[in-house]
Amino acid sequence: MECPALPPGWKKEEVIRKSGLSAGKSDVYYFSPSGKKFRSKPQLARYLGNTVDLNSFDFRTGKMMPSKLQKNKQRLRNDPLNQNKLFWEKRLQGLCASDVTEQIIRSMELPKGLQGVGPGNNDNTLLSAIASALHTSSAPITGQLSAAVEKNPAVWLNTSQPLCKAFIVTDEDIRKQEERVQQVRKKLEDALMADMLAHAAESANNTDVDMDSGDDESAPE
Amino acid sequence: MECPALPPGWKKEEVIRKSGLSAGKSDVYYFSPSGKKFRSKPQLARYLGNTVDLNSFDFRTGKMMPSKLQKNKQRLRNDPLNQNKLFWEKRLQGLCASDVTEQIIRSMELPKGLQGVGPGNNDNTLLSAIASALHTSSAPITGQLSAAVEKNPAVWLNTSQPLCKAFIVTDEDIRKQEERVQQVRKKLEDALMADMLAHAAESANNTDVDMDSGDDESAPE
DNA sequence: CGGAGTGATTTA
DNA sequence: TAAATCACTCCG
Question: Does the first or last residue of chain A, that is N or C, have fewer Cβ atoms within 10 Å of its Cβ?
Answer without folding.
Answer: C
